[in-house]
Prior knowledge:
- The chain is mainly α.
- It folds into two domains: about 15-125 and about 215-285; about 130-200 and about 295-305, no CATH class.
- The protein has helices at about 15-35, 40-65, 70-95, 100-125, 175-185, 185-190, 200-210, 215-230, 245-250, 260-265, 275-285; strands at about 130-135, 155-160, 165-170, 250, 255.
- The strands form two sheets. The chain has a three-stranded antiparallel beta sheet with strand order 1-2-3.
- A hairpin with a 4-residue loop joins strand 2 (about 155-160) and strand 3 (about 165-170).
- The longest helix has 27 residues, at about 40-65.
- Residues about 1-10, about 140-150, about 240-290 and about 300-305 have low confidence and may be disordered.
Amino acid sequence: RPSGEKGRSAGSSSCQQRIWELEEVMEEYLKRCRINLSDKSRLIQDSFRLENQFSLLLTQLKACLLGGDCDSRSLRHWACGAAFHTQMLAHLSRLEEKAEPFSARAALDQYKQDLKQIIPAYRNYRSNTVVVVKCRGVLLANLDPCREVPEDGTMTGLTVMDRETGKSVSIPLSTMEADIRRRCNDSDHNALNLDLITSDQYAQAYLDHLFSSKGPLAELENYFTQIDERLGMQRYDKQSKSKNAIREMTEQRGEVHLSDMVEGNTEQQKIGAKEIGEWTTEHTDGAASLKLSIVETQPEESLSQAD
Length: 307
């Protein structure tokens, strides 16, 4: 199994084990759905069994996150697993011909509450991985590795380093000043000495942005909101579906569409048999939209906001 990108923390062995097990149950669930498309009773039995396993694993992974192993990779796996579990429950609701996916909504509400508990643990973890160094003379990114970092002289910028990813981003002083001029009037800008702001304060400013309403953590919360909205559009009309509804909903243009049973009939939501593997990879690898790394969050847009 992949151990993650180089330089990225994989969390404790217990946390990693939960992630591997989630991936295995997810893969098995998708396989059983494809195998039993023509046997509704068997499909419901398998779905119940695997949904229970998946739910327990998510609870165990949450415990790992709250216990101090809340790195970015593990958080993404938990978030994507929570979304996948919600879809499993919605799938079951449609198989059972229920009018609305009440169990899926209840699970999603619980995951929203869980996320509120997890975010402080993630911030505590990230506070120990982000380091800001003031650059003097030249930016660290342009320094000869054999040379010592200057401790005296005029500040020329910042270098933000992320111990989790092993990456760094350099921000020239001119970029910071230009951003301040854009936000403040000239008199305020002239009175501000950016060198008086400590490295810890710059690091705190980066974390404040990361966890603000405009940062990537807000995108993660919005990820759950979008799922909630999709669930709100799901309805099942028994009178409009025949006894062969499962196959009618899943066979179109010679392809089998699993998510028609999960999310309705909109083209955007259809996942063909050929795409199931890709969909699984997207969810287990952390969904590219959940941006939590230092490079993806563009600290040059946030560090100059320090007050």
